[in-house]
Structure formats: C-alpha cells, structure tokens
Amino acid sequence: MNTSTMSQGGRVVVPKIYREKLGVGEGDEVIWAEIDGQIVLTSRLRQIQRAQDLCAQLFADQPERSLVDELIAERRAEAAREDAESAEFIARESRA
User: How far is CA 85 from CA 1, 16, 55, 92, in A?
Assistant: First the structure.
C-alpha cells in the first residue's frame, strides 16, 4: 500500500506506480468516481476502452450489426418526419 499526504488546496500526488499502471502522465485527463464509499481514480482512455469492451461483449453474437448505421438510419427517419411535419405546417399556414 502506498500513501500520499494531502497538501494545500486538496492536492494529492498519485504515486508513480499507479500513474504507470493507469498509463497517465502530466496533462492527461483522469476521472474520479465515488463507488461504494471509496474514491476510484481512472484514466479517460481506460474508461473509453472499458466501454468499447462492454459493447463488444454485448454484441458479440451480432458481428454484422452496426450501431452507427442504425443510429444514422434512425436520424434520417426522424429528419424525414420533421421535414414532413414542417411541410404540413407550412401548407396549413398558407391556406389560412
């Protein structure tokens, strides 16, 4: 177990061994989270990798599925609905 002392302004030095394990250095963004009454420190890159791994596990049985393509299709359908609603509104207003 390593320890650090909190300095003025609430600053704490993360021991080198943990910085190396997290793969973080000066200027890198880190994430602090409270989990079950404990403070957990992780790197933004590690959290992104964790999210990617989770998605890969969730969709491992559907390798041909593309969430990006699904999102694009949903957005295009929504845009088409919005365009139709706008055209309908304009038509109604022009008749009034």
Answer: 63, 59, 35, 11
Q: What is the per-residue burial (b if ≥16 Cβ within 10 Å, else e) of 24-57?
A: beeeeeeeeeeeeeeeeeebeeeeeeeeeeeeee
Cα 50–52–53 angle (5° rounding)? Answer: 65
Distance CA 79, CA 15 (A): 51
CB count within 10 Å of CB 15 equals 13
pLDDT tens, residue by residue, 5-21 = 999 999 999 999 999 99
Note the pTM of the prediction, 2 decimals. 0.52
